[in-house]
Amino acid sequence: MRSMLARPDAERVISDLRALAGYGSCGTGVERRALGIADCESRRWLADRMREAGLAVEIDAVGNVLGRTAHARRIVVGSHTDTVPRGGWLDGAFGVVAGLEVAREVAAHPHCYATGIELVSFSDEEGHFLPMLGSKSYCGEIAEGILASLRNTAGQSLAECMQGLPEATASLARLDTAAHLAFLELHIEQGPVLESEGLDVGIVTHVVGARQDRVRFHGRANHAGTTPMGLRSDAAQALFRCAVAWADACSGLQIPGAVWNVAEASTHPAAGNVVPELGIASFQYRAQERESLDRMAEALASVADRAATLTGTRVSIEPVFALDPTAMDTMMIEALEEQALRLGLRGRCMPSGAGHDAMVLGRHLPAAMVFVPSRGGVSHSTDEDTTPEQLARGIELFARTVWSICSRS
User: Which band of pLDDT confidence, cut at 50, 70 and 90, is reported for residue 302?
Assistant: First the structure.
């Protein structure tokens, strides 16, 4: 069987990763916001590398970059190459470039594999326009009318930014469950578990759900020196009360593995001698069960109403995004475990606390994920890193699993 003879070239993968990191280089990290100049340049580079590997290439109407072997049925592999501001060189990119290595082998020996490869670099996983934009579009989860209305965090429309990719088609690439058999994604852990336990790889059992709401408190601006405390309608005080009370409420729910975060907080007017009329912040929360997310949402609504009452303000809560938890496929997990055992890798099964394109694909196809350690558990930072040896072990497990499935499917 060809898959047992083939071996991925980890040095080539790492070299390609270093080349990709040159697009949007930011010190030791990378900044490639979705469909910005650096991101568009990197997508052209990737398309060229796919063509060199013998793949048929397409860039679709939302910026997804796809490379396909000539097989009628294919395993989908990949991740994303966009980043957060001042992000790392591996987050997402690792899975795409390792997927390119996997596709090279199948393209070079098409008759040795019953099933081919569809490699995808999904657009805007990080949510510059919409979290998981590319994978949701690929899976048919976004209406075209919604796509037309999307704007990024700088206020630019999706159509305007797509002008940076004039080679893109006007059509949307779509998942075909008759032709596409499964999805596999390789990724850095973005957490401390594997490193702290001295393990080589993690096999993901499920990706937790995540929601984010934007909470606004509306008060009345007034002079901070002359307005008595009991007569204020103070939006800042309402926001701060809400943030503290919600953290206490979430802790009291005692939901295993749940996490929560308050960020992007601001007040207006932003002056020390003015009682703010507006307090606004993003409240994000993650949990393994949808029911747990519902409980955290209910707690937010309750404490927000209470904070508004105590401060004489009004409150509004606007959903920003909601991602349901997704379980990975049992048979795909078993295939990864089998190959890890053959390779003598030390690993464990674990959930993913971060969202990934696999959670979208996993609603439509059997899906699985492989993690490698992150140095210090750091990601979404220019300090993000993983040793070449750790990357190589993940590449080996990922490649051998995909090739094994392609050989027998």
Answer: very high
In order of 54, 58, 106, 390, the CA distances from 109 in angstroms are 11, 21, 5, 27
Helix (H, G, I), strand (E, B) or coil at 121: strand
- Cβ-based burial of 228 (10 A; exposed 0-12, middle 13-18, buried ≥19): exposed
- Residue found by looking up tokens 């971060």 in the block: 354
Model pLDDT, residue 323: 85
Q: Torsion-angle region of residue 41: left (phi > 0), alpha (psi -120 to 50) or beta?
A: alpha
- Helix/strand/coil for 295: helix
Closest-CA residue to 356 (of 55, 91, 65): 91
Q: Tokens at residue 241, please?
A: 């009360």
- The residue ranking higher by pLDDT, 153 or 238, is 238
DSSP 225-285: TTS-GGG---HHHHHHHHHHHHHHHHHHHT-TT-EEEEEEEEEES--TTEE-SEEEEEEEE
Burial 15-33 (b: 16+ CB within 10 A, else e): ebbeebbebbebeebbbbb
Summarised one tens digit per residue, pLDDT across range 8-67 is: 999 999 999 999 999 999 999 999 999 999 999 999 999 999 999 999 999 999 999 999
Query: Hey, is 302 helix, strand or coil?
Result: helix
pLDDT for res 321: 87
The CA distance from 284 to 33, in Å, is 21
| Residue 259 pLDDT grade (very low, low, confident, very high; cuts 50, 70, 90) | very high
152: left (phi over 0), alpha (psi -120 to 50) or beta: beta
CB atoms within 10 A of CB 344: 8
DSSP E strands, 297-388: 314-323, 326-327, 347-352, 367-372
How far apart CA 331 and CA 46 sit, in angstroms, is: 31
Length of the chain as a residue count: 409
> Is the bond into 269 cis (omega within 30 degrees of 0)?
yes
Q: Rg of the chain's alpha carbons, rounded to an integer?
A: 23
Going along the chain from its start, the domains and CATH numbers come out as 2-207+325-408 (3.40.630.10), 209-323 (3.30.70.360)
- What digits encode the pLDDT tens for the residues 278-295? 999 999 999 999 999 999
Report the chain's mean pLDDT, rounded to a whole number: 96
Please list the residues that pair with 30 across neighbouring strands.
25, 87
